[in-house]
Design goal:
The complex is a heterodimer of chains A (about 325) and B (about 300). By secondary structure, chain A is mainly α. Chain A is built from twelve helices and no strands. Chain A starts with a helix and ends in a 7-residue tail after the last helix. Chain B is flat and about 85 Å long. Classes of the chains: A mainly alpha (about 325), B mainly alpha (about 300). Chains A and B meet through helix 1, helix 6, helix 7, helix 10 and helix 11 of A and helix 5, helix 6, helix 9 and helix 11 of B.
């Protein structure tokens, strides 16, 4: 177990390095020269050259990358072009808002998908099963930002039950998820985010559970005289490792994929930050946000793999 | 099977063996598809969407980019504008028809190039194995460290908007998963006896890949590509929604959804229309690829 954990940890390092290379490359593929966009058009060439040397842009790309990586490791992600504020602080503040609703969404989706998937697997061909099949197709086909717009149309415009956008009066800093007046702002983003993972997880739960239910040990349990409920608990325990793996993967996707949903709800998370960076062509901000999100995705995958090997000792992957 | 001693079974020699027609691979795929009505219906739907997009210039009743301040945000069922007008008074039917062109293009072109490039890398990695495999697949692993939407936003956000950049972005995003599927399929085929037999009989690597490996890798890769079409359409519409797609006057479903968002209090149904188009197209592509997977008997 410890050997596995250690090896998995070591294997994460090259991936993280690769992630930093891609994030560094983002600046390189962006059109336009970073210095000429910083200075006034009539700046003399000597001054531009001096600035270039000051920022290290006259160095070879590899040296630039290493310098950048060194700064990033020290927690310095550069400054945003728009307001010259440190990117790291801004991203971290937004990341907190994103991770909380992503976590709530994925847990909500996890519980609902376990229930729906189990019912569908037991009563195959029944009404819940058909509903789950339809939901699965809908969930993977629907553009989440459209779903978000439709939710706003139904619950904010027509029914007027929930607020359409934002985080309410308390704002980002004193937002309290346990107070209804605050939490109601989070409901629609959570539901819009939860639907695609809900659909996918329900489908996998149904598939893996129906496979388990066909195995011999279930027959043995039946022969021993166990009731339906006890058999199901045995079967569910068997699909847990796969379900947990799915949970982690979906959480990662939500963290990255929430950009569109957050834009619709103007939820002040990393998605809104990315949107701002795109609109103002603020490449350092874009780079820093992507780096944090991708790093989080890698770490979540790591944690999931380790959790999985704890839950299921049979896992010894190469 | 137990052995039956020869001659112990009475065989009626007067009765000829019933003639059976042996179907080829594609013949049997078609035979299975023929009775899959959901898939057939979705195929017809896709054909209709494609035709509507191709013939948009003739089908659309009005100029999709001609705005009219007097006719802003007309409701669905309006006498002159059947599906209403958008926030600049442009006819929704025309814009939806023209917008389908961009969306379909974004579904098909990136998947096509990603299949070519990703498939080629995957086959090379799977066939040669060893160091070549390690370099290619570990590079792909780095791309897998990004959720697909995030990778798309990152690349498109850096490159900037525009239809060409959008296509490049989507192609790059779709290459790694395709490469992985092709690599797995190739590695499985490679270890089979007939590949060894071909090599033993002196076939060159090139001809082994083109005439033995490719045909066996093709169906899993094609089935997987077909699932990516709807993903590509949704990703593209998402990028357009963020302003990273076509530039404004051009009609595009994602962009329309984004600009109509300000009008949900006035015309909620009109504002939801482009999304309905995206949803229907993407469901149709998803169901067809599910049907193809079953008909071609490829494991997910």
């Amino acid at each position: 177990m410890w050997m596995y954990a250690l090896r998995r940890l070591v294997l994460t390092i090259p991936i993280l390095l690769g992630v930093t290379i891609i994030c560094f490359a983002l600046v390189q593929i962006a059109p336009g020269d970073p210095i000429t966009s910083l200075v006034r058009p009539d700046t003399p060439p000597e001054q531009i050259a001096a600035l270039r040397a000051y920022y290290g842009l006259d160095q070879p790309v590899v040296v630039q990358y290493l310098m950048w990586l060194w700064r990033v490791l020290g927690g310095n992600f550069g400054n945003s072009i728009a307001n010259n504020a440190p990117v790291a602080a801004e991203v971290m503040r937004a990341f907190a808002n994103t991770i909380v609703i992503a976590l709530i969404s994925v847990l909500f989706a996890f519980v609902v998908s376990l229930v729906l998937g189990t019912i569908a697997a037991i009563r195959q061909g029944g009404i819940v099963d058909r509903l789950v099949t339809a939901l699965a197709v809908f969930g993977i086909s629907v553009p989440t930002f459209w779903l978000a717009v439709v939710l706003v149309i139904i619950f904010a415009v027509n029914l007027n039950w929930l607020p359409a956008t934002g985080m309410g009066a308390s704002g980002s800093d004193s937002f309290n998820y346990f107070v209804w007046d605050d939490f109601k702002f989070a409901i629609m983003p959570i539901v819009a985010l939860a639907l695609p993972p809900l659909a996918i997880m329900t489908r996998t739960t149904r598939a893996s559970l129906s496979e388990i239910l066909n195995q011999d040990f279930i027959q043995t349990l039946r022969a021993k005289g166990l009731g339906g409920f006890q058999i199901i608990t045995h079967a569910i325990r068997n699909i847990m490792p796969a379900a947990i793996a799915m949970l982690g993967l979906q959480l990662g996707y939500l963290i990255g994929g929430s950009v569109l949903v957050e834009t619709v709800f103007t939820w002040p998370g990393t998605g809104a930050l990315l949107n701002k960076a795109i609109l103002t062509r603020d490449i350092p901000l874009l780079q820093g946000t992507i780096l944090v999100l991708a790093g989080a995705f890698v770490l979540i995958n790591l944690v999931v793999d380790l959790a999985q090997s704890l839950v299921d000792p049979r896992i010894k992957r190469s | 099977m137990t052995d039956i001693p020869a001659g112990s079974l009475p065989v009626d020699k007067s009765q000829s063996v019933p003639s059976t027609k042996v179907r080829g691979y594609w013949g049997s795929v078609w035979n299975r598809l023929r009775y899959d009505y959901v898939t057939l219906f979705c195929m017809a739907l896709i054909a209709a969407i494609v035709l509507a997009a191709i013939f948009a210039p003739w089908l659309s009743p009005m100029d999709p980019e001609k705005s009219s301040m007097a006719n802003r945000l007309r409701p669905i069922g309006h006498a002159k504008f059947g599906l209403g007008t958008d926030e600049q008074g442009r006819d929704m039917i025309s814009r939806l028809l023209w917008g389908g062109r961009v969306s379909l293009l974004m579904g098909i072109v990136p998947v096509f190039f990603a299949t070519l490039i990703g498939g080629a890398f995957g086959i090379i990695a799977g066939y040669y194995g060893g160091k070549v495999n390690m370099v290619i697949m570990r590079t792909m692993d780095v791309f897998f460290a990004f959720p697909s939407v995030l990778l798309a936003v990152a690349i498109a956000g850096s490159l900037g908007g525009g239809i060409g950049n959008q296509m490049i972005t989507l192609t790059v995003v779709l290459i790694p998963p395709l490469c992985r599927v092709a690599e797995t399929a190739t590695a499985q085929v490679r270890s089979l006896d007939f590949v060894d037999a071909a090599r033993a009989s002196g076939a060159s690597t090139y001809s082994i890949i083109t005439s033995h490996v490719l045909i066996n890798v093709l169906s899993p890769v094609l089935v997987y590509s077909s699932t990516l079409v709807s993903i590509s359409i949704i990703l593209a519409s998402g990028l357009s929604f963020l302003g990273l797609g076509v530039s404004p006057p051009t009609a595009d479903w994602g962009l329309m959804l984004s600009t109509l968002r300000q009008s949900i209090y006035v015309q909620p149904l009109v504002a939801a229309l482009p999304g309905v188009c995206i949803l229907i197209t993407s469901i149709a592509f998803n169901l067809v690829s599910d049907g193809l997977r079953q008909a071609m008997d490829v494991k997910a």
